[in-house]
Amino acid sequence: MITLFTTPKDFIGIFNIIQTNALNSWRSISDNIQIIIIGNSKGSKEVAESINAEYVPEVKCSKEGTPLLDDLFNIANKRAKYSIMAYVNSDIILSDSILASIESVSKRFDKFLLVGHRWDIDIDEKVNFNNKKQIINFWKIAKSNSVQHSCTGIDYFIFKKGTFKNIPKFAIGRWGWDNWLIWQARRYMYPVIDATNDLMVIHQNHSYSFHHIKDKNDSKNNIEAINNRKLHG
Fold first, then answer.
1. How crowded is residue 93: how many other Cβ atoms within 10 Å of its Cβ?
2. What are phi and psi of 213, to 5 degrees?
3. What is the pLDDT of residue 60?
4. What pLDDT sits at residue 154?
5. Do 56 and 80 touch, CB atoms closer than 8 A?
6. Are 92 and 64 in contact (CB under 8 A)?
7. Residues of the chain whose pLDDT is less than 70?
8. Which DSSP string corresponds to the chain?
9. Is 196 left (phi over 0), alpha (psi -120 to 50) or beta?
10. How do residues 120-151 score in pLDDT, each as one tens digit?
11. CB 3.0–4.6 Å: which of 121, 152, 154, 232 could bond 178 by disulfide?
């Protein structure tokens, strides 16, 4: 089985809808998946309880209050029950095909990094991932209406426990940290596997106005993004 971990934004407005959809989709895959929700964003504790996820409110943050990647991974690594782990952004909807992809890769490699493209779609209402008919209908709509994002949109990272060490203090959700994880895996000669053709993950579109971020451009160029660039060079 697998340990999924994430750090959500506040469950307010559209982020309440899309993050609830995402986390419910993870739980619908299996009752045995370990889900760890990290950070004290508004509503996280309640959502964690609703899907039987572990809740860890304390995480080290930047001066601006954004969770730091190294501590997220440290927390998850200490709490992980399974040897396969995945960091997934909290707006990503997953299907049960993830289990087959993980099983196939983990049988072949001792260490690896599994990543892939995402598919973007507009969603403005909650989906009942406890209802099989609604799940089937959702994926039918998603396959017809979603648009594949470029390779720069990397929203999930699946790996063996202990793969990543000495992670810099990247601010999560600001530009550059995702590329560093891939670089680090390649630096240590771990296979980096593109699961795009086998694993469809859905990214629910949203604005970039949250926390102290003004817009998408600000997320690329604010002080946290500048610090991330300094860290990864």
1. 28
2. -90, 135
3. 97
4. 87
5. no
6. no
7. 207-221
8. -EEEEE------THHHHHHHHHHHHHHHH-TT-EEEEES--TTHHHHHHHTT-EEE----B-TTSPBBHHHHHHHHHHH--SSEEEEE-TTEE--THHHHHHHHHHHH-SS-EEE---EEE---S---TT-HHHHHHHHHHHHHH-EEPPTT---EEEEETT---S---PBTTSTTHHHHHHHHHHHTT--EEE-TTT---EEEP--S-BTTB-SHHHHHHSHHHHHHHHHH-
9. alpha
10. 999 999 999 999 999 999 999 999 999 998 88
11. 154
Q: How far apart are CA 162 and CA 83, in angstroms?
A: 9
Distance CA 135, CA 202 (A): 13
* Six-digit token string for 169: 């203090």
What confidence score (pLDDT) does residue 210 get?
54
- For the stretch 95-118, pLDDT in tens is 999 999 999 999 999 999 999 999
Q: Which two tokens stand for residue 2?
A: 């697998």
**Structure tokens, 111:** 């260490």
In a 10 Å sphere around its CB, with 0-12 CB exposed, 13-18 middle and 19+ buried, how is residue 210 labelled?
Answer: middle
Q: What are phi and psi of 166, to 5 degrees?
A: 55, 45
